[in-house]
């Protein structure tokens, strides 16, 4: 989590960066590195619920838009963070997230979340399943042009954030283990910013963690 704080600070996108965590160990490490950390309740069903707990605190009352960079995306890019934020701050949608073009190799991987969107960029559905499904192989080129891999960055207006967490967890959210299906099922509009590149690997498995640690060591050595 400290690594996420360092990366987001380097991006210079947000007015303020705070790590929301239920771990005293993480909070202590963040503060020792010069960052801001806020302890939250441990029982939150999603990262968005954790962000919402922080957003209502007095010291953050002047902010009207919030961006959630999740701890399993340690190499999140500036374009992803900025893209999600601009979906919301531009007034286009009350909720925002990000996706990038992907090959058909991701369709069979449940660890990779896919998204399909309307023509205006509004998210229609997110899934771990292969979407869009190819019914006729003659249309493979059409599908190739619209395969999008979701990137775990979210942005919210204050009101939309409050509306999201006021909803009970939805069956679709629980089935797919995707928190963004909660507001979609309730009819809240979420815009998707498209970026050209994916972050250098999220952390979903032990193998991902080993690769992330090795990459972080390389990046840290390059700064010295």
Distance between the termini: 21 Å
Percentage of residues in DSSP E strands: 15-25%
Question: What global shape is seen?
Answer: globular
> Based on DSSP secondary structure assignment, what is the total number of beta strands?
8
Largest sheet: 4 strands, mixed
Number of helices: 9
CATH superfamily: Spore Coat Polysaccharide Biosynthesis Protein SpsA, Chain A
Question: Which structural category do the helix and sheet elements fall into?
Answer: alpha/beta
Share of residues in helices: 25-40%
CATH topology: Spore Coat Polysaccharide Biosynthesis Protein SpsA, Chain A
- The structural domain count equals 1
Strand order, largest beta sheet: 3-7-4-8
**From the alpha-carbon coordinates, what is the Rg to the nearest angstrom?**
18 Å
Element-by-element helix/strand order? HEHEHEHEEEHEHHHEH
> What CATH architecture would you give?
Alpha-Beta Complex
Mean pLDDT: 88
The residue ranges in which pLDDT falls below 50 over 5 or more consecutive positions are 1-9
Give the CATH class.
Answer: Alpha Beta
């Amino acid at each position: 989590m400290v690594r996420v704080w360092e990366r987001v600070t380097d991006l210079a996108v947000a007015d303020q960066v705070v790590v929301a965590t239920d771990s005293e160990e993480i909070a202590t490490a963040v503060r020792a590195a010069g960052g801001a950390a806020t302890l939250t309740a441990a029982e939150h069903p999603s990262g968005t619920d954790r962000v919402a707990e922080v957003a209502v605190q007095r010291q953050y009352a002047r902010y009207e838009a919030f961006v959630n960079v999740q701890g399993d995306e340690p190499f999140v890019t500036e374009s992803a963070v900025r893209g999600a934020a601009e979906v919301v701050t531009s007034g286009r949608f009350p909720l925002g997230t990000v996706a990038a073009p992907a090959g058909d190799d991701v369709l069979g991987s449940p660890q990779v979340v896919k998204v399909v969107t309307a023509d205006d960029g509004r998210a229609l559905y997110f899934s771990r399943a292969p979407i869009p499904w190819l019914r006729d192989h003659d249309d493979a080129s059409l599908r190739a042009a619209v395969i999008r891999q979701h990137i775990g960055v979210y942005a919210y207006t204050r009101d939309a954030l409050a509306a999201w967490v006021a909803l009970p967890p939805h069956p679709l959210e629980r089935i797919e283990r995707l928190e963004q299906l909660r507001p979609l099922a309730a009819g809240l509009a979420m815009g998707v910013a498209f970026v050209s590149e994916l972050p250098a690997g999220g952390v979903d498995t032990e193998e991902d963690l080993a690769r992330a640690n090795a990459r972080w060591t390389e990046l840290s050595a390059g700064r010295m």
